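All the exercises in this workshop are built on plain-text protein records. Instead of coordinates, the fold is spelled out as a row of discrete tokens. Once this layout is familiar, the rest of the handout is easier to follow. The record below serves as our worked example for the rest of this section.
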Amino acid sequence: MEFPVDILAMLSHEELERCAEDYMSDLLHSNPDEAESFALSNTRQVPISVSNVGTVPMYGADLTHKLLALFAPEDPFTAVALYLAGQWWAVEDVLKTADCSRTGLLKVKTLGERVVLYVLNRIMYRAKEMNKNEVPFLCHHHSDYAKILWKDGEAVGFYSVKPKGSLCSSFLTQRYMLPVMDSIFVRKAHRGQGHGLQILEDFVDSFKEDTLGLKFPLSHTMYKVCEQYLRKYPADEDLLWEVEGVGGPFQRSEIASKIKSMSTRGKISPCALQDTDSLLLYCLDFLHVARVVDVIKEPALQVEEEQLVPTDEEALAVVTPEVHAQDEAQAVVRNFQYLPTCVSAF
């Protein structure tokens, strides 16, 4: 049985959206007394109607491309299925593949892989596995460099990188001066299995630069992952840097030196290298996150600011410093807000 990532390999955004537009048009003209339902993997039936079907932006603040999503009546903020290639797919099935060669860390290239990246980021991490003190990170842009971790026919994690020379979203006129890993996530069920080190090794192998960056600030657990890497590859002592901003000469600090300093102060135990996947890199840069409130009642978005302090929760995530109010609104607004334009929006 093929899954969306296999089927959508040769499909374009336009074809996917045209199919969803046709489906939504049929749904709007269907008999409400003969409503269909979708069976989730746990055998629970979710009714399909215009009241719980709508579009969500695939790339966050970039509203150019959307996905048609199904929401459970009891949770109108989290999609339980996506309409892809002419049928509904449970979000858990969107992460699966029938291609046995799809294993390990593979670069995101196709539309199907972009959809998988979206589900991992916005649904699995943000809606299901994010701890309450964590800050969600933005949807990846359609051209962002990212790799998905495939294991036993399923996508279990990802990481993304801002390549050297790419524009920095915090400083629109400045470009990154070295490759910087800015987001990383492994599902909770697959942590403690060495995937943190695996991702760091892949990052190093993928970018043949003299210096590589990890987004500031690193958590205590991420330092352990870096220490484990440096013990395995001592010749790379000058390779890894903790980076602020675009990574200029005065915006970076050598990770090996910081680890030595922390070890001297007893903050990192040489024996405490267990469960290195349970890492948290908060890239807050002293940010204030704009939280969208009351988006349904008011025609204009109201934003309040709340300062967030990084904690060392057991998670595997990096957060970018900007959270756009529009992006947040699209992620949380009830589906019926989209219904008047759900057909013409494509």
In short: Residues 4-341 form one domain. The first helix runs from residue 4 to 7.
